[in-house]
Amino acid sequence: MSMSWLFFKKECLTFWRSRRALIMLVVFAALGILSPLMAKLTPEILKLSGATAALSALIPKADSAASWTQYYKNMSQIGLLVFAIVFGTSVSGELKDGTLINLVTKGLPRRAVILGKVALAILTWLGSVTLAFLISWAYTAYYFPDHKSPHLLAGLVALLVFGLLLSAVLIFGSSLGQNSAAGLLTGVVAYAGLAILNLFKSCQRFNPLSLLTDNMTLTTGGETLSHYTPAIVITIVATALLTWAAVRVLEEKRL
After folding, report:
1. d(Cα 252, Cα 143) in Å, to the nearest integer?
2. How far is CA 61 from the centre of its chain?
3. 31 CB-near residues (< 8 Å, 6+ apart)
4. N or C: lower Cβ tally within 10 Å for the chain?
5. pTM flag (> 0.90)
């Protein structure tokens, strides 16, 4: 069994024992439950609170589109933040504690460290988002049996692909130093840069951030996933480049 595979197994075990896996499970499951419930209950709460007609008109009608809008809003805000906090110190924490020294001196390739951590982050994102999606789908199908969200998988695929880049950005940022905020700060800077690019309409089709912000356009059939092929390709290439860059940074770093 290769050292790389052993390190990945060690990462998975540590991830579980540190209860970070439990945090991701609980948070994303809760988001999956809350999304349709908030879409269902918000209009009712406003009615009971005696809200004015003008205010009530601003609230989207309770249907499947409102439920999935809430789901993607939760994923792009709370879900994104929790994921960034959990994986933002993935490498920097080990550098700070010196836990990699023994492993590297025993022959563990430094690239295996980065590849193992990127793989764990990606698998966690895919699993967490899919879990929340399935829960939200079940509740949405029960509460809102309509046909206003015909392309659910298109929106989900876009969100899953964006997570590849997010994982690589966090691991790359975390590999830059022992500062525990490095990974999270890198993620914030990258997000801000993509958000600025997204202000230009000509860039949106090529911008990975579109995979996070245009999910409802895909879900309701306003656009097809093939329209975002350039963004998907750029996201995958950028993920590979950032992973390679993180390997190079760690190989040059003194532990």
Report:
1. 55
2. 27
3. 71, 74, 75, 78, 79, 132, 136
4. N
5. yes
Which tokens sit at 240? Answer: 């590979």
Q: Which of 85, 120, 128 is nearest to 243 (CA)?
A: 120
CA 60 from chain center: how many Å? Answer: 25
Q: Hunting for tokens 């004015």 — which residue is that? A: 52
pLDDT in tens, 3-55: 778 889 989 999 999 999 999 999 999 999 999 998 888 767 766 665 555 55
What are the tens digits of pLDDT across the range 116-141? 999 999 999 999 999 999 999 999 99
In 3D, which of 253, 254, 239, 201 has the Cα closest to residue 115?
Answer: 239
What is the structure's pLDDT at 15?
93
Query: How far, in Å, CA of 8 to CA of 112, rounded?
Result: 8
